[in-house]
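Side project, low priority. Logging it here so it doesn't get lost.
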Amino acid sequence: MSGSWTGPRLVVAEGATPRDRGRSHGEQTADLIAEAIDAYSASFSYTHGLSWRAVTERAALWMPQISGLAPHLVEEMAGIADAAGVDVLDILALNARGEIVYDPTFTKMSADDAPEADGCSSFAITRAPDGHVYAGQNWDWRETAAPTVIALRIVQPGRPTVIMQAEAGQIGRQGANAAGIALNANGLGGRFGAAVGMPQAIIRRLILDSARFYDALRVPFALRQQIAANLLLTHRSGFAIDLETTPGRHRWGYPDEGLLVHANHYEYGVPEQLGDDYRPFAVDSLYRSPRLTELLRDGLRSGREVADTVERALSDHFGHPHGLCRHPDPEEAEPVRSMTIASSLVDLTTGRYRVAIGQPCAGRLDPLPWNLYDGSAESLAGAGIAAHEHDDGCLCGV
């Protein structure tokens, strides 16, 4: 890899089988996985009174569902565990940490008492002045998770190559694939009962494993999830849709004049299960969403380059420390203190993928040393198609 790279650790997970790819991931991140387990052990002990062993015992509830639907992902997690010297349930718990934080089967905390860790702000720009299509976000999460963030490239024969920013050991987060599909995500909050549903990490990876936009969009509608989440899907042709997904019904929205933004509150209607007493778990979402919309729209109209416009917008400090660019709040307890741990911008037209580690105000969105479409013809041929869906500028040249 590039010797001048100063961003998150670069990890390429590759191999002929899912277990091989998992081992590749685990070999390169064993130290970070150990650090992540230590950090979540401390935070779950503080917030839930649970030992790490108790957390992994509960995580085992998801294994039958995942094994039945996506056995290749169980194999990948097993490979990570083998190489990192931990149990597969340790890796599953790292992937399902959002479910553990927000689900009532793990804690008796009320929604009002739950830690406000997830403050992500996502966007899609489908009609940029340069004619390109972009997607990205600020990723807000626990301050203790920041050192474990990696830039992960998964090269998987028969499926599109995927690039994500993730925590070490995770197999699904937010990113984009060689079929020209981007996924950005935000927590929504709310309690939806104790039924066991699919963890978000699995849902998001299945979306990013999709070679066709139809298949990617179908994933959250075909599965029952455990917790609510906002999923913003963007296609390189310029189509984008935002889904507010819950274990019950979903709602959705589309770009307005080429721009689609979402944060952490329900914008298309409050789910019936939450009744009349719904309150956003992250009140700063109520200003982050319109603030990001205004900053992006004004910047795009000004003629500034898109990357510069996005950097400026994501670095906004209105509401500091609970702004778009989130800084640690000294009034929050250390195990649950949150901040912007990474930011991303992917140009779906050219395949250029940019990442900033930590707060965007402290560093630039630097291009990764990989292009999203490197080897895309080979990876998609294995999935049975010549290239991603036909559109203006399609790789297949049709």
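Brief comment: Confidence is low (pLDDT under 50) at residues 108-112, 385-398.
Revisit when time allows.
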